[in-house]
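ugh finaly. both done.
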Amino acid sequence: MNSQKKEWESLFGREYTQRNMFTPSELDKLYLDRYGVTRTGMNHEFLDLLDRDIMILEVGSNIGNQLHLLHNMGFKNLYGLEINSYAIQKSNKLNIELPIYVIKGEALNLPFKDSFFDLIYTSGVLIHINPKNIRKVIDEISRCSKRYIWGFEYYHDEGYKEIKYHGQNNMLWKTDFKKLFLENHPEFKLLKEKHYHYLENNHLTDQMFLLEK
């Protein structure tokens, strides 16, 4: 078992879930305060032209905050993969009346057939994958996506940069994740990319990208 998996399945992962218990409106306010735009606004900018009946998977869905926002946009077939059992329990309880389905699993081995989903996405998840394992995760996401890959992650323009995360080393890195996908899977092409700067620190940047096969 790699160290990241052990931590995210443990109390560390549970505490992360407890820190991120947001309603859709609270999540939008968090993004608005941080970037000057809501997460719903970002989603519309990147996904508005997509058919609402497509099959969507979020890798690392936690309690389903992002899936809930996609439901509010009209998307109907929403699935999540989550490694922490406590987060899955919370997700199932919070989204019991919504078409959101979350199962236990890990990014290194997606339990789905090739091209099973029309769109697969991550939001603040690839940053927690050890660089020695990131190629495997990228391969798995690419394998299971029929058409689109969508990401929102911390951004660094040259190589990998490790950041201490809640006092721990070996838990968070930032890089150009879009570039990693394109270098390793040239069957995907970039449709859209945008960098969002933090209002309180313009030197910090997050990256959203949409790729198409």
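ok and the 2nd:
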Amino acid sequence: MPNTHSDAAVVLGDRVREQRLKLGLTLEDLASLSQMHWTSVGKIERGQVHPSVESLVRLATALNADPGVFVTGLTAAMYGKRVHGLTAAEFIRQRDAENLDDAS
């Protein structure tokens, strides 16, 4: 089986596939309804690629779903190694603490 893009892509793809099957749609049906190629939809469902926002919205619209349901709970950590693990708030606190130390 080909490699997956990321853990997040696998979760998102599983959610798309689950909704598609719940509605009784084939891969080709969903591709047609979302105006995408069926191979692209298949790659998304298998987690091989992560869809663009446009593709995600097209899929969600075709599936009668809010696009947010497909990305809820996904985190940056699910995309692999990050250069740093800071959030904006943590970065600001660290920067401010360093500035205080420099001013002393």
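summary for the 2nd one i guess: The longest helix spans residues 7-22.
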